[in-house]
Amino acid sequence: MWQQRLTQLVTACHWIGSKGWAPATGGNMSVREDEQWCWLSESGRDKGTLTTDDFLKVNIATLQAPSGRTPSAETGLHTLIYRLFPEANAVLHVHTVNATVLSRIEKNVQLALSGYEMQKSLTGQQSHLDTVPIAIFENDQDIAALSARIEAYAEQHPLHYGFLLRGHGLTCWGKDVSEARRHLEGLEFLFECELKRRLYTTE
Ligand SMILES: CSC[C@@H](O)[C@@H](O)C(=O)COP(=O)(O)O
Ligand SMILES: [Zn+2]
Q: Where does Zn(2+) bind (predicted)?
């Protein structure tokens, strides 16, 4: 099961690379093996050319990698998502231009998406008339501190699909690689629309 997930994740990484969403080694990706373990991209690799050998088994509770190799610098965000959301089996973190810029232009702690048909690319969304809030967290080089802030937020607010790190990028997830990919592509499309809308209108 998880081996198939990992193969699908490698394909997703190549797709992300071809889109230019993980430039200059930015981004990181993972899949869950089970309640205890996940497989995370090795730190510092070009995420567009990864193979299955570039993923490290990581303990979700302790963040330890038995291989002794160094998993992503943002391992703590992936393991947080697997801890918070038992239904999440794949996590994608990307550095897209739209996510990076929009998260700086939007000064609030949430980006409100409404009026877009493509909101329905997000599981459970059924109408452009609804508002989808996407949380924005201040970026932090201290990933443990950032994870604690996200966890505290999730205790008070629903946290679906993904979140933005201001000036940094998007982290999103799904019940499988295919759903995580749809959330990534859908959110990225919505971010680009929202960025352009703000460029052309004053509303
Ligand atoms: C280009 S450096 C960006 C990193 O600091 C980080 O934000 C990132 O997404 C990739 O880190 P990595 O340790 O390779 O998973
Ligand atoms: Zn990053």
A: 93, 95
Q: How far is the CA of 46 from the centre of ligand 1 (A)?
A: 10
Number of domains in the chain: 1
| Identity of the residue numbered 83 | R
Q: Which domain holds residue 76?
A: 2-200
ipTM of the complex: 0.98
Using the atom order of ligand 1, give the atom closest to the CA of residue 23.
1
Closest of 183, 198, 199, 28 to residue 121, by C-alpha: 183
27/93 Cα distance (integer angstroms): 5
Q: Which of 144, 181, 143, 139 is nearest to 163 (CA)?
A: 139
pLDDT tens for the chain, residues 1 to 203: 899 999 999 999 999 999 999 999 999 999 999 999 999 999 999 999 999 999 999 999 999 999 999 999 999 999 999 999 999 999 999 999 999 999 999 999 999 999 999 999 999 999 999 999 999 999 999 999 999 999 999 999 999 999 999 999 999 999 999 999 999 999 999 999 999 999 999 77
93 annotated ligand binder: yes
Q: Is the pTM of this model over 0.90?
A: yes
* Minimal-distance CA residue to ligand 1 atom 9: 27
- The CATH number linked to 78 is 3.40.225.10
